[in-house]
Specification:
459 residues; alpha/beta; UDP N-Acetylglucosamine Acyltransferase, domain 1; elongated
Length: 459
């Protein structure tokens, strides 16, 4: 693959999206469509990638952040014109083959890319069109095969097709492999001889055939390679197609779905056998879920790891680790850089941030644990708060093994509660508590007899 490169066309505006966002940056399963194209190239071991940017180019440039080469298409004058913007870059990658992908067609997968290249090389093609066979080809360009069906003699668009040609079910995906030298030749020959005054990349196929070069087509077993989005309805269809495909993969791997209403799982997510995913669950990024878990209903987990035999009910977890046998929820928020260890029980309305929670610790309800290191077997009473911010800096709280934190305790960081130490309910702890000690830090109670009677008389 070292001699091969890819050009991804990402200059489109997508006016029908009614947004300032470039069309390839609209998301499918939480990732920009452009990212899907990039990953297909990278997974196919294509190291040299050039992205053609155009409308609102800064958004794409910021997203790529130097990940690959970019070129600018100032005027958007068709797909052929877009590839022309990369001519100088292509000349630096002579001697191999060039893949052309559309940045708003996310489902051209890496296996299709690799298999199409193998056919391209084996048949000695100057150009190989990636195609699909569909039941309803309406609106797509039809592939015209040679009599032996090993090559192609052209592509005919819907509006130009005869009635017989409209019956053809093999259609153009808009993705191509070219021999780089032949691509450069064809780009120099494309003319804007059409009603739109644009340079069409499809014309390069005819140019190469007319010049005596061989053209072929690879039929992808993935029928979704042709799918793209021109408006919000199309984007929804892409998301639904991708969502169903990912859920289907997990079903095949032994994951249980009682109902898929509201369930969205990113394509990089891994889920262990025997786990049950309930309604309203969203799993994003590089999340890994262990075996025999129950996740949901209404969980959101992003870039996090969940161990085996863990139950999460209405929990949000971000950039954190949850170990085996944990039970959490409902209404729990685990913020980034947290580690909840095995056997922990977290109840309703608890928030954890940038903290380690030791084995078998319990926080039943209404507790905030932030910037803390909590030992094993700790019990948090209702209403406990680790007061970690003094208005200028964050400070950490340390709680030893077996400690008992009474209800409505405020732990004013930096502070340490020792092993098996206790804090009395309602205490505001401002200094360290030794191992095994009881801390009672309250103001004196004052009782004013007859207070309410006097207050009522004033009314």
């Amino acid at each position: 693959m070292n001699n091969n490169c890819a050009v991804i066309l990402a200059g489109g505006q997508g006016k029908r999206m009614k947004s300032d966002l470039p069309k390839p940056m609209f998301e499918v399963l939480g990732e920009p469509m452009l990212e899907w194209a990039l990953k297909s190239c990278e997974e196919a071991e294509i190291g040299n990638i050039c992205v053609v940017k155009g409308y609102n180019a800064e958004v794409i440039e910021n997203y790529l952040n130097g990940r690959c080469t970019t070129v600018m298409q100032e005027e958007r004058m068709g797909t052929g014109h877009a590839v022309m913007m990369a001519v100088d870059w292509l000349k630096e990658h002579m001697g191999g083959n060039t893949l052309i992908l559309c940045g708003d067609a996310p489902f051209v997968d890496s296996e299709t890319v690799k298999q199409a290249l193998e056919l391209h090389i084996a048949d000695g093609n100057a150009v190989t069109v990636i195609t699909s066979e569909v039941e309803n080809p309406y609106g797509y360009g039809r592939i015209l095969r040679t009599p032996d069906r090993k090559g192609i003699k052209g592509i005919v668009e819907e509006k130009d097709a005869t009635n017989e040609q409209k019956k053809i079910c093999e259609i153009n995906s808009g993705a191509y492999w070219f021999k780089t030298e032949q691509l450069l030749y064809a780009l120099g020959e494309i003319k804007p001889n059409n009603s739109q005054g644009e340079y069409y990349l499809t014309d390069s196929v005819f140019i190469l055939i007319d010049a005596g070069h061989r053209a072929g087509a690879y039929i992808s077993p993935n029928p979704d390679v042709v799918l793209g989005a021109n408006d919000r309805r199309g984007l929804l269809k892409l998301n639904n197609a991708a969502r169903e495909a990912v859920i289907g993969k997990h079903l095949d791997n032994g994951v249980e779905f009682v109902c898929t209403d509201g369930v969205t799982i990113g394509r990089s997510v891994k889920i262990g056998t025997g786990t049950k995913i309930l309604q309203g669950t969203i799993l994003k990024g590089n999340t890994v879920i262990g075996e025999n878990c129950v996740i949901g209903p209404n969980c959101l987990i992003e870039n996090s790891t969940v161990g085996d035999n863990t139950i999460l009910n209405t929990v949000q977890v971000y950039d954190s680790q949850i170990d085996d046998g944990v039970k959490m929820g409902p209404f729990v928020h685990v913020r980034m850089n947290s580690h909840v260890k095995s056997g922990v029980k977290i109840g309703d309305f608890v928030e954890i941030k940038n903290s380690v929670i030791g084995e078998r610790t319990a926080a039943a309800h209404l507790t905030y644990v932030g910037d803390s290191d909590v030992g094993s077997g700790v019990n948090f009473g209702c209403g406990t708060v680790t007061v970690n911010y003094d208005g200028m800096n964050k400070h950490r709280t340390t709680i030893g093994d077996g400690a008992f934190i009474g209800c409505n305790t405020n732990l004013i960081a930096p502070v340490k509660v020792g092993n098996y130490a206790y804090t009395a309910a309602g205490s505001t702890v401002t200094s360290d508590v030794p191992d095994g000690a009881l801390c009672i830090e309250r103001s004196d109670m004052h009782i004013k007899e007859g207070y309410s009677e006097g207050k009522l008389r004033k009314k």
